[in-house]
Model the fold of this input.
Amino acid sequence: MSNRDIHRAGVDAPSKTDKQSGVPGKTREDQPFNLIGKPFRRVDGRAKVTGQTRFADDLTFPRMVHMRIRRSTVPHALIKSIDTSKAAGMPGVLGFVTGEEMPNTFGILPVSHDEHALCMDKVRFVGDPVVAVAALTEDQAYAACAAIEVEYEVLETIASVDEAVAVPEPRIHDYGDEGNLHKKVSMEFGDLDGGFEDADVIMEDTCYFEGNTHLPMEQHATVAVPEDDGRITVCSSTQTPHYLHRSLSKVLELPASRVRVIATPNGGGFGGKSDPFNHEIVAAKMALKLGRPVKIALTREEVFYCHRGRHPVHMHMRTGFKKDGSMTAQHLQTALDGGSYGSYGVASTYYTGALQTVTYKLPRYRFDSIRAFTNKPPCGPKRGHGTPQPRFGLEVHLDKAAHQLGIDPADIRLQNLVEPGTVTANYLKVGSIGLGKCIEAVVEGSGWRERYGKLPEGRGLGLACGSYLCGAGLPIYWNHMPQSGVQLQLDRSGCVAVFCGETEIGQGSDSVLAAVVAEILGIDLQDIRLCVGDTDLTPVDLGSYSSRVTLMVGNAARQAAERARDLIAKHVAEKLEIPARQIHFADRRVFDLENPDNGMTFAEAVVVAESKDGTLGTTGSYIPPRSPGRYRGSGVGPSPAYSYTAVVVEVEVDPTTGIYDVVHVWCAHDVGKCINPALVMGQIEGSIYMGLGEAMMEEQVFRRLPKKRSPALVHRHPSLLEYKSPTFNDMPPVTSYIIEDPDPNGPFGAKEVGQGPLLPVMPAVANAIFDAVGARVDQIPIAPHMVRAALDAKEKGKEPRFGPKPGFPDVDFGAPLKVLTPDEGGDGKAENQDEAKVRKGTGTMTERKDALKDGAWKESQRENKKGGN
Amino acid sequence: MPDQMLTATLRVNGEDRTVVFPSHHTLLEVLREELTLPGTKHGCELGECGTCTVLVDGDPVLSCLVLAGEMEGHEIETVEGLQINNELHPLQEAFADLGAAQCGYCTPGILMAAKALLRDEADPSKEQICDALAGNLCRCTGYHKIIQGVQWAASKMRGDATAPPREVFYGDPLPNGGRDE
Done:
């Protein structure tokens, strides 16, 4: 009914008669889309406006009990004792779980399985889980939890990257590249010194991006249910049911076949529900121990401490420019404050360097990075994962370069765009690039040429661009299997059941999945029944992260649906005695393109096929194309396609106070091809919103007392009131342009839209403030006092800037991994790979080398190509 | 010490229900747990996010900040009472069609706050909508589709069938003329 409702309201109704009448003599491929590219009501739209969507905390089961986790109140300490005796005697208390009961470690990346579901002997941040208690009611569980006594032997608190560099002992973890540095990366692509020699001007900048958090409106919740056959089902607000499934199996020491994970619709994710979490595993353990369903819903404060959000990143960037604005070389250094655990951190570290090359031509590039362990909640992936920080640095840096070289900031970008089909200096294969069209749209829309640099004092425009992945080229753990799988079941009812492990986090993945299948089979969304995010019932999809769903699930769904279409077409063609290629699927009918009246309903067509072939079902899968990079670290950055965005922001700044308002945002996003433009719009507007929050106010920061007084290190404002995020009254008008530069790797050409449009917002705000008042704030978020401080400096004749002290922490990176660029005749391998330090412990790359050796990867690629992806 | 229990008859969505609950429990808790109406969500349980907004005698109230025991004799409305039988309220229609609900977690609270606004203002301005909803946080939408949804619903309720302009669904027309298709 949904799309019809919109159509009834008069919005661009596709004409029924157009749809029905196939164009004679034309093939199926020439027919217009039924659904793709038109706005339709999302398939879960009705459930969401009626309160019928069942989030994890809305689930109840007979005999269900409640669990709370006692978390560390000190940032770094050894656990001396845990005393549950007082709590055990309290009303309703049923049992406890402690760390020794689950000695196996877990973590999202195979290289950093460094978490215990409950800490064994050491706590690493305020909020680390120590012991769990279950009781009949939630109130009783809270009371008992508070009565548990834990004694600690306090260790030195490490609160920042600088402290982690300066204090190698005590180590927060007994693994990692050195001392309290979790990860140290250094790689050089091409002759960097030569590149700088070629430069006319060398620019140098230091900037800082503060951490911030996802702040989904739904707090994480989990219900674990022991089943009647001895298995365990875990319903959870997770973006990654597959990885949770693996973690549960490992920590609970149960075969994966005896564990079922159901991802409930997420009340917002933004990356914050992408890790397997301790509370999910502990709930399962408690449920198995008590033999009854166990629920835990985190408090808002706990969600702030769960975090896994944006890493605080200190950046130093040095770039050589020719007079015409082209770059000759860049050396980027990033220092990430990782918090207390690995999480996605190794990937985050590489991501702070990987995508510097996919927007503007950068022939030579060096990237150094460290990720420090500190006694704070672990950082991980938040919308843009590791790339918004260096994107901010790069786009502000370019703005400064444009000014120094006397080039318009729009032109310095337009003149140096990466060309479609390029392999970059760091071996990323770029497909379609609609960035030029994006820049032109926002430049024209905002009146940039007439207004930039010419607005009255206090008003300014800023421009910035960005690019993001459409899914990571490699899976998180090395394997040869599809990253996404879809299975269809068709029967005589005409209903098509679609099974897929994808997870709806609000972005509309269910709608994309249903729309792709409905389009190819020519049926309505209401003819489709989805079963998603269930590890028992659905083929594996790796989850809703890295903007992978539209491209990967879409391609898998397309393959499954095309196989079903071809099967049905074959049998219907036989019956109608026409060639199968002439059979078309549209308007819930299967018919002869040459003579549209010659046909039958879709349900009748299924009957024909089911009568001939028996029970009908098809599958589809997707594996991304192999990336050309062969050096260690080349696994982070490759993607089947890259989305592009350009943003212009207009600000109004009060120079006396430094208070500023964003008065308008123009955004153009190259989405390849819209599956559903209404959902694309929602993602663009939502990304702009979140980007403005990051630019102007959001920060996950910590309060520390002087060392000699206390080791305490606590969140400065773990509440929705004090953690500032934009409200209805803070959101400016947004002009959104959807640019469609179809990518050959995307389903129907589609690329991502969930993360990319956020990236340019922060630098665009900073650049606009410069245009308005001639002051630079080289850090995010930009608070009014920073604008004012930069203006103070300007008035005193100093550099009109507020930001971190120029420079980078004193870290010995040793010799970088050296990789010749494609232009220099490189083959994607490092010249000095063998000299490089061998990674300790388990490593994805070791497994990857083994996998590449046996040729299975190539095999899977050939299969994939055969499948039509 | 065992909880003090209260027995109260609450009138929710026009139906009287007698429930027993601990005296310190909020309306939010009693709605979700005793009355099996989990459509009302919790985001902070501290009155900061607006997610738990319900109507009490027609006015928006944060159900996490009122005790259920104080609610006897009042008309309580939740998202479950918004539709009439199986027909969606115009706000629900508009929100669903525009994608004003993405993850949908803040949606019940926003729908209720918007319903109260439309009771008082048949044709609210953007500023009035923003003021009325400023206490409700949404992390997904950037608020635009919600504002447009409230406006569309208001126009439907006034008997005006005009749909939002094309750019609300398709993005703005490219400034250099025509869409790139």
In short: The longest strand of chain B covers residues 5-12.
